[in-house]
Amino acid sequence: FTVAVNRNFADKATGERQADFIGVVAWKQTADFVAKYFKKGSMIIVEGNIQNNNYTDSNGVKHYSYNVIAEKVNFGESKSSAQTSNSVPNQAKTVPQTASSQVSSDLSQFEEVLGGNDLPF
Question: What is the tally of structural domains in the chain?
Fold first, then answer.
């Protein structure tokens, strides 16, 4: 499935907010849960890993594609809030910023990279 993520800024010329559309891959119980409880326009919180799918086509052009492999999926709003917002047409739906603003300061699981020679880019 695909999720729309609103950008934090608007187009200067038109004042319209842009959205990015991110592909999400879910398997087994996670996929069943999404199919049963979510519909287009539902707010969803997805936790997972980013998968890189690069390939070169027959014309030698390199294409880059990224998907989120869902590990956990949760509701982004309450049931009553979802029913209210779905009854109002063309209402902008955004994900609360609290999840992205809470960053853990525990960096003990990461190691410092001293030289950039081993990086794949």
Answer: 1
Q: How remote is the C-alpha of 43 from its chain's centroid?
A: 11
AA identity, residue 20: D
Place of tokens 């492999």: 69
Does residue 84 sit within a domain?
yes
Please tell me whether residue 57 adopts helix, strand or coil conformation. Answer: coil
What CATH number is given to the structural domain containing 52? 2.40.50.140
Q: Assess if residue 70 is contained within a domain.
A: yes
Kindly state the average pLDDT of the residues 94-105: 40
Instruction: Find the domain containing 27 and state its range.
Output: 2-101
Fill in the DSSP letter of residue 110. S
Which of 11-15, 62-66, 85-89 is most confident?
62-66
Q: Could you tell me the end-to-end alpha-carbon distance of the chain, in angstroms, rounded to an integer?
A: 29
Can you give the length of the chain in residues? Answer: 121
